[in-house]
Design a protein that fits this description.
Layout: H1 2-29, H2 35-64, H3 66-87, H4 103-111, H5 114-145, H6 149-181, H7 183-190
Helix pairs in contact: 2-3, 2-6, 5-6, 6-7
């Protein structure tokens, strides 16, 4: 148990650093009119990866046991991260950036906007709900519906890969197209 917990903590710590770095790269490489589409494609890739992991992990766990699935699931990440490390460079940045604001000023700005407070409350709740559903759905399929790991993984993989991935890509594309006409329409779609 201790090794699994430590492994999960390390994965979580590294994943939390990915989103700000990704947002920074997208902001540096793409115009504001393209960013929602790019983020949609990034989430498409994430959803497809999750789908492939569910299908492949279910099959591996059914055929070779869950330990083999855990071990083999790390190999693509090591290969891809090594490839990115060797081939990706930091994009050039404008030197005209403003100095970072003080924490106090940022906190006051957030507290003065009720919508921001609601978003900051809703996002962790939404993430907790979706994580809980994704974590326990396979067990639910296995225990209640009598599926094996392979079949449960196939269903989850299709839902995550096709359903979530296509929704992310389409929503990002539509948000960019609608925000060309009216920023409010694009924001309403994303909400």
């Amino acid at each position: 148990y201790g090794q699994l917990l430590l492994g999960r903590v390390i994965v979580g710590a590294t994943e939390c650093a990915a989103a700000p770095a990704c947002a920074s790269l997208v902001a540096s490489l793409y115009s504001a009119r393209e960013r929602a589409t790019i983020f949609g494609l990034i989430f498409l890739g994430s959803s497809c990866g999750l789908g492939i992991a569910a299908v492949g992990g279910g099959w591996l766990a059914t055929s070779y046991g869950w330990r083999a699935a855990f071990f083999l699931a790390g190999i693509p990440g090591l290969v891809i991260s090594s490839l990115l490390l060797c081939t990706t460079r930091e994009p050039p940045r404008d030197d005209h950036r403003a100095a970072a604001p003080k924490i106090k000023d940022v906190a006051l700005e957030i507290l003065c906007r009720p919508a921001t407070i609601y978003i900051l409350i809703a996002l962790p709740l939404s993430a907790a709900a979706s994580s809980s559903i994704s974590i326990w759905t396979a067990s639910f399929y296995i225990r209640v519906h009598g599926m094996n790991l392979g079949r449960a993984g196939l269903i989850l993989g299709l839902v995550c890969g096709v359903g979530l991935g296509s929704a992310a890509a389409i929503t990002g594309f539509l948000a960019d197209r609608l925000s060309d006409k009216s920023l409010a329409k694009g924001l309403v779609l994303v909400a």
